[in-house]
Amino acid sequence: MSYLPSASGKATLLGLAAPVCWGMSVGLVRSITEQFGLAAGLSILYVSTCLFLVFFLGLPRISAYPRKYLFLGIPLANVCSVCFCLSLYLSDGGQQTVEVGMVNYLWPCLVVLFAVLFNGQKARWWIAPGVVISFLGVMMVLGGEKGVQPAEIWMHVQNNPWSYVLAFVGAVAWAAYSNFTRAWSNGENPTLIVFAIDSVMFSCLWLAGYGDISHASFTGWASVAIGAVAMGGSYAAWSYGVTKGNITILAIASYFTPVLSCLFATVWIGASLDGAFWQGVAVIVLGSLLCWSSTVMHK
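RE: above sequence
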């Protein structure tokens, strides 16, 4: 009897690396933008990621993509990238960086919600409480030890509103992009195109004078190296896993990304997270899982 995993099992194991890598993104992007500035740091990160993706995925065939997807679908991923990175760059300290990351992690429940509203996906009734629970989890994260008190949360957000707003806009953009990809992509993987456009945008800003790499430390360069492998590797591993592995296991694992993100942030950027914060994260994960299960149980 062989104890070695099957080809599907190996693909699933490889795919499980993706949520781990995604969980590293909040801490790494924050560290990179602190070290290099927004434009220079992200330009170096995305160019490095593109090189990584070319090596593993090869060059994309632009002609294989419908025009409406190229001009309406893919740009939403770039909007998400810009909003996500800006929200982390503008955040004030490790605690707020992770809070902003949790707002952005509303995207799993929004992906499911948009699929039901706009893409013909069928779902059971508990998708509604799943969405509400996810938003409640974010309110718990923002409320901290004071709990879910809307007035207190509003005051907290007002201290740095753009950071939270951009994180939410990024989540909405990614949810829309995911559904457009399902509907319009013809099964093609647009990852390299997305990162290439991001690279051009941030490189232009860097050439315009926004960014300075002269004061970057070893931690900054290490963040770039790890970030390129993590971001490029996550997409490559995820694409391989969902194509040849067990997509149900991978989908469940992806919803625990917020937990992994918080764990990595406590180590990499020194975020101090209390018990109330972790309870909020658990509620976000629970809400996302409810949204996901509402579509699976409908089949």
